[in-house]
Amino acid sequence: MRIRSLFSVLFLIALATQACQCGKSPEEPGTEPEKETAVDWNKAADSGSLSLVRHFWNPGKGFFNYDPDKEDGPDKDWSYWPQAHAMDIMVDAYLRTRDESYKTIYFDKWYTGVKQKSGGNYYNNYYDDMEWICLTMIRLYEATKDNKYLGTAQDLWNDIKTGWNEQGGGGVAWTKDRPWSKNACSNGPAGLIAMRLYGIQKNEADLVWAKKIFEWEYDHLYDPATGKVFDNLNAQTGAIQDWLFTYNQGTFLGLAHELWKVTNERMYLNIAVKSASFTLTGLSENGVLKSEGMGDGGLFKGVFVRYFVKLIQDEGLTQSESKRFASFLDNCANSLWTKGIISTDDPLFGPDWSRNDGNKDLGTHVSGAALLEAKALLERNKTGK
Predict the structure, then answer these.
(1) Pairing state between β 57-58 and 228-229
(2) Spatial separation of the C-alpha atoms in residues 28 and 321, rounded to whole Å
(3) pTM of whole model > 0.85?
């Protein structure tokens, strides 16, 4: 008989105890919002997206340069995976404003430009990098209903699924040449792809994939006692690398949240809340997500915010959870807008949302812009405007 996984056992326990939950969560320390100034968050979000275009968009090549105010140069000025997140800001701005110029100027130009810069296709040695491009293709399809985006997403998904192997008990590998490296960064987004495609095409196989990926990550990289999501498993040695990043917390809670919305199984929501709650205290300073540096780390907070803001809006949260999470996002946004930029007219965002140290690149700016878009989204849903 096959022994149940830790995930399966805890799932049964959660179902058995669900009726006993009182629906209240204690307030977490360090999440009280700063006094909110009279900010027009819609205009603030506009400034973030327009500044992204002004300082990073390469109109001749059709992609975003890595450093601000530079022409396309050597490969060091280009990075593949931030392209997805930069275009996500364009999609956010389009959905928020319905300004057709975002679609007509940037969407198709980017679709072609990234492909050409990547050597004539969207494939990459890093499964996680392809996963982000795939997720953005899905968003572009949802925004435009143009089937070329969905077709590209499906092609990428078919390739990504080949990264699953049984080393380390399963999981999607980090890279094609290291099948033994099983990372949170390559599994959380893969599960999100499966859920998003399932939502569009209702292919039951995609839902099966999402659950399988989630269960593997839960069993191997998640600490149910704390809500921590560890970085990776080395299947050759069995060692767990216990680095903690907002990126991994965000994609894992995002996948759990997507599964909750589809299955209505409360355990998934509870896990998403647990993962978010750890991030608010364990990866924050003074109620603001902490700096994770430049380079890849500069993008991590933006990834977390994109999935955290969806969780905030879930009607299944307790009143306490909803208030605590919204207050935390408010605190981050107000800190960024009052301390993290030099000018609100033409802002550029660095890695620290509590101060501006003069450092900035595509990833750090996109993270800040993602926070402003998230705040604008919450305000619009609150006011109905």
Answers:
(1) unpaired
(2) 9
(3) yes
| Residue 307 CA to its chain's centroid (Å) | 5
> Distance between CA atoms of 30 and 284, rounded to whole angstroms?
8
The residue whose two tokens read 């080393």 is 167
Is 310:276 a contact under the CB 8 Å cutoff?
no
**What CA–CA distance (Å, rounded) separates 187 from 217?**
7
Q: Which long-range contacts (CB under 8 A, 24 or more apart) does 1-5 make?
A: 5/215, 5/219
- Per-residue pLDDT of 332-346, as tens digits, reads 999 999 999 978 889
Q: What is the CATH number of domain 32-383?
A: 1.50.10.20
CB of 341 closer than 8 Å to CB of 352: no
Q: What SS3 state is found at 140?
A: helix
Largest CA distance in the chain: 65
Q: Give me the residue spans of the domains in the chain.
A: 32-383
Query: What is the pairing mode between strands 57-58 and 63-64?
Result: antiparallel
